[in-house]
Each structure stands twice: as C-alpha cells, then as structure tokens.
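Inverse folding, one chain.
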C-alpha cells in the first residue's frame, strides 16, 4: 500500500520598493537603464564609503506591515549577512536578522477548503544585489544598476499545502503592494519574485521533511509548475530510498524541471552581526498612526463590501479584488448595471481570460461591458451569445449593440418561433425522448443542445426548456 504524503511550503517574497533613490545612496532606481550607469562607490561597496538609510524605505516597510496585520518593531537594527557572490561587490548584504521592522502578521486567503489563514513570520528591509549577465562569447558580466535597490522580504510560515494556496496568497500579497503603492510589483521585471521552500512528509507526521529552496521564481505559472515538479521529485526520491539533502535549486521553465545549484546554507553560515556603519532604526507611535491613517482601501475591505452590498460569494469577491485594476474596473461597471452577480460572472468567466498578462490589460471599456450586461439582464441576448460578443468586442473594439446587429445574435424570445422548431427537433430525437420519459434527465439536455445548435445559440434556454418539458410530459 503506497503512503500518503503532505506537501509543506513556506515562501520568501522579495518586493522591490518604488523609491526614487536606492536604499543607502542617492543613485536613481530605474529599471532597464544602460548597464552600470545607476551606481556609485556606495552601492558598489568601495572601501571607505558609508551608507545612509533612505527613510522612505522604512515608511514603505511599515505600510506593508500594517497592511498584512503585522506588529511593528519600535527599535530595530540592520545587520551584515556575509557571503561571497560576484553580484555583490562587498561580499556581504545589508539586511536584518534578529529585529525585522515587521513581525507576527497574517493574510487570509480563499482555498479549496474555504478561508485559510497564512502566517507571516517577518518583513525586513535589505538591499538587492547586482545582476549577472551570461554571454556565450564574453562570459559572465556584472550589471550593478540593481545593486542597492531597496527590497522588503516577506517571509511566511510553512502554512501552504498546495500550489493553489501559494498562488492565492501571492496574488493577494502582490495586490496589496500595488494598492498601498509601495511597489509596481511587476513580475516580468523582477520587482515581485519569490523563493519557495518545499518539503514532503507523511500525512499525520508533525516533523518537517528535508527542504529544498527553489530560487527566484517570477511568474505564477512557473511557481505552480516548479512546486508540482519538486513535490513529485521528492516523493519519488523518498520512495526509492534516496536520502534527500537540504539544498538550493533552480527552475528551468523550458524543461519544466528543478535542478540542484548548491547545498543550502543555514542562518549560522551567514555570520550575521550588526552593521557598524548604520544607526538603530527607531519608530515612534506618531509615525505608525500617520501611516495607518493614510492607508488606502485594502483588498479585504473591498471584498467585504462586494459581499455585503452586492451579494457576491467570498470566492467571486476575492477574484475581483485580486488585481487593483480589475477591482477598479468592476467598480465602474457595477454602477451601470442592475445585477452585480451577472457582472461578476461575466468578469471572472470571460473578461479575465482575455487579459494577456497579470496587469488586467483588456480593450473593452467599463461602459461597453455595462451595456452588454444590460442586454443580458433584459433578455436581449443569452449567455451563449454573450461569450461570442465579448470576444468580438475585445478584438474589434465595436460595441455589443453593433455586434448583435451585425451578427444577428439577438435572443429568440418568441414562443411562436420556438414551438414549431422544437416540434421538429422532437420528431428527430425519438431515442432521447424515450430515454427522458424513462427517467434519464440527461437526455433532456441533449435535445436542448440540438435546439441551441439549430438556432446558432440564439434560443432562450429557459423558454426552450419549458416548452420542451410541456410537450414531453403530454
């Protein structure tokens, strides 16, 4: 009998802050600049230079903390994390070890089993490293533009049990960072990326397994695929008697596999000690209260409002607020319609699928979508036609009214038109009729399918079903 396994996952999320200058110097923060044009002796780490902490970084870290239900550390410090790697000229990174700015927070997500609380261990500030560029002819080059860009690292508890929970958490966390305007959180530019710590244990076991850390994942799809592959790899290794080692692994998105990079360090290997060049971080109550007072409306606040005011389910409301752009879009649309539920179904079921990125980039205006929903509400069109119309609206930028007229997609709501058509289909569907009359409810759907096919999806489904049931019961 094969054993049942449980996946245990914790996340370390790195968020680049959208400050104008770097964390310890006045160099401009600018993605995509010419290599080594936004750096200075301080962020490169030349001997004799002294860092000065950017106050805005602390403010943004506090905003992130209070938005994720964290406690704020009133008196903290910064530490040197010692390791050698070519993209860090100093051979250490200025980070925080024992006294992070934020600690003890949580986020609630909608999981497959309902709402679940994910613990947040800490949020600390640190500097980003430079970037290695691998060229087949020139070898490995170093671009220090990113070195010294301010980061917050958000460390979760090992509370995840599936890649779906991970995705729900990351979507919510990313949205919060955008809502509070501390980061653009562009995953394709690396300003929102995460490391996945994953281990396997038998169900019912309390002790953690041997974990692998998968580094620098920067898209939801790659994160989901990396977790799925790594879970299977570890289970296969355990069942074949292999001894797992604590290690750091990379992810190859083309091959869709993880691969070993090096054995994983423990915290003691970094030899943390307080940075002697930086003063303690002292945060007073007035600063915290001011930040809390000026926070914008957060996703959970909108979610509750959509549930209470518009009667949306927790799942639908969570999906809509998962992007600030989609929530703002819904907010504009909902003022134009009578049924928020129909709008939510169209938005989640159809509109989300048209977006080509995580940025909710669609071509249909809220006014045009509102018009389409009103046509659904008054029976001008049905759901089948709505799907065709939405696709054409996005491709052609025409309105729903124009497409309905052009493609003849108006719903057939006339009993006089539908009844003779249904009579003809019944006479051609004797086997399905007999099955339905013998108690097989599914047979009715096959007949309705023929009606919809005959009318190219334009027949009123409810009216068609009513007429069909009346005739089959006689």
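Residues assigned per position:
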């Amino acid at each position: 009998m094969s054993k049942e396994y449980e996946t245990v996952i914790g996340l370390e999320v790195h968020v680049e802050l959208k400050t104008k200058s770097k964390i310890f110097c006045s160099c401009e923060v600018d993605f995509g600049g010419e290599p080594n044009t936004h750096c200075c002796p301080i962020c490169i780490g030349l001997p004799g230079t002294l860092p000065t902490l950017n106050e805005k970084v602390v403010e943004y870290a506090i905003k992130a903390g209070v938005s994720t239900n964290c406690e704020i550390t009133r008196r903290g410090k910064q530490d040197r994390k010692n390791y050698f790697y070519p993209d860090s000229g100093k051979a250490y990174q200025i980070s925080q070890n024992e006294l992070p700015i934020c600690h003890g927070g949580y986020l609630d997500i909608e999981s497959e089993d309902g709402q679940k609380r994910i613990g947040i261990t800490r949020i600390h500030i640190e500097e980003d490293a430079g970037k290695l560029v691998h060229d087949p002819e020139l070898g490995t080059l170093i671009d220090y533009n990113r070195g010294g860009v301010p980061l917050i690292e958000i460390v979760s508890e090992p509370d995840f049990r599936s890649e779906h929970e991970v995705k729900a958490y990351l979507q919510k966390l990313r949205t919060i960072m955008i809502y509070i305007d501390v980061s653009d959180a562009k995953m394709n530019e690396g300003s929102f990326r995460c490391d996945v710590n994953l281990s396997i244990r038998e169900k019912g076991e309390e002790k953690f397994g041997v974990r692998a850390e998968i580094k620098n994942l920067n898209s939801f799809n790659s994160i989901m695929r990396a977790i799925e592959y790594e879970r299977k790899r570890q289970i296969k290794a355990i069942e074949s008697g292999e001894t797992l080692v604590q290690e750091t692994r990379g992810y190859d998105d083309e091959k869709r596999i993880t691969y070993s990079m090096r054995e994983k360090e423990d915290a003691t290997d970094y030899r943390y000690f307080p940075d002697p060049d930086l003063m303690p971080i002292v945060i007073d109550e007035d600063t915290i209260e001011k930040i809390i007072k000026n926070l914008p409306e957060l996703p959970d606040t909108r979610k509750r409002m959509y549930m209470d005011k518009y009667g949306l389910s927790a799942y639908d409301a969570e999906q809509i607020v998962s992007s600030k752009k989609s929530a703002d879009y819904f907010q504009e649309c909902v003022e134009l319609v009578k049924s928020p539920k129909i709008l939510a179904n169209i938005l989640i079921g159809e509109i989300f699928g048209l977006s080509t990125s995580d940025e909710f980039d669609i071509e249909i205006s809220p006014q045009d979508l509102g018009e389409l929903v009103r046509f659904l509400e008054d029976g001008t069109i049905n759901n089948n036609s709505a799907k065709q119309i939405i696709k054409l609206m996005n491709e052609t930028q025409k309105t729903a009214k124009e497409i309905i007229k052009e493609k003849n997609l108006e719903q057939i709501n006339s009993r006089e038109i539908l009844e003779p058509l249904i009579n003809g289909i019944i006479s051609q569907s004797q086997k399905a009729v007999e099955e339905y009359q013998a108690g097989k409810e599914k047979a009715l759907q096959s007949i309705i399918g023929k009606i919809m096919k005959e009318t190219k999806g334009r027949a009123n489904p409810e009216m068609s079903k009513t007429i069909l049931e009346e005739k089959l019961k006689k």
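The mean pLDDT is 92. The first strand starts at residue 5 and ends at 16.
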